[in-house]
Amino acid sequence: MTRVTRGRVAQRRRANIMTAARGYRGGHRVLFRQANQQVMKARQSAYAHRRKRRSAFRSVWITRIQSIVRYGSPGVSFGSYGSFMSTLSKKSIRVNRKSLAQLAHTEQQVYHDIFARLF
């Protein structure tokens, strides 16, 4: 019986996996089975952490807003982040947390103007 070496598709798939496994240590870089397992695990982690990154950024935004609400505005105090956000929604000021955090971090004068609109 003649030996079948499989087609170009399987070779290309293995080559792609071995390319993705560059930089791994030991057999995870050299041996196909181990490399395949590591690449699959890395892709799962990358997928999960892309979603985690969103919540991490949201917590950074909330922390920045909270710090300027508590300490950054002269003469005006909301006391807490929650009361500030509820006041924003009651006054129908539609600004998302990302924009508020950016304003609080870079352009504090605009942020103080938003504070002035609340009173």
Question: What topology emerges from the helices and strands here?
Answer:
Elements: H1 8-20, H2 27-30, H3 32-72, H4 81-90, H5 97-106, H6 108-118
How would you sum up this structure, described in words?
The protein has 119 residues and is mainly alpha-helical. It has helices spanning 8-20, 27-30, 32-72, 81-90, 97-106, 108-118. It has 6 helices and no strands. The longest helix has 41 residues, at 32-72. The model has no long low-confidence stretch (mean pLDDT 87).
Quote the beta fraction.
under 5%
Query: How would the global form be characterised?
Result: rod-shaped
Overall pLDDT, averaged?
87
End-to-end Cα distance: 88 Å
Proportion of residues in helical segments: over 70%
Rg computed from alpha carbons, rounded to a whole number of angstroms: 26 Å
Element order: H for helix, E for strand: HHHHHH
Number-wise, the strands total 0
> Could you describe the largest sheet, including whether it forms a barrel?
none
Integer tally of domains: 1
Structural class comes to mainly alpha
Extract low-pLDDT stretches.
Answer: none
Total number of helices? 6
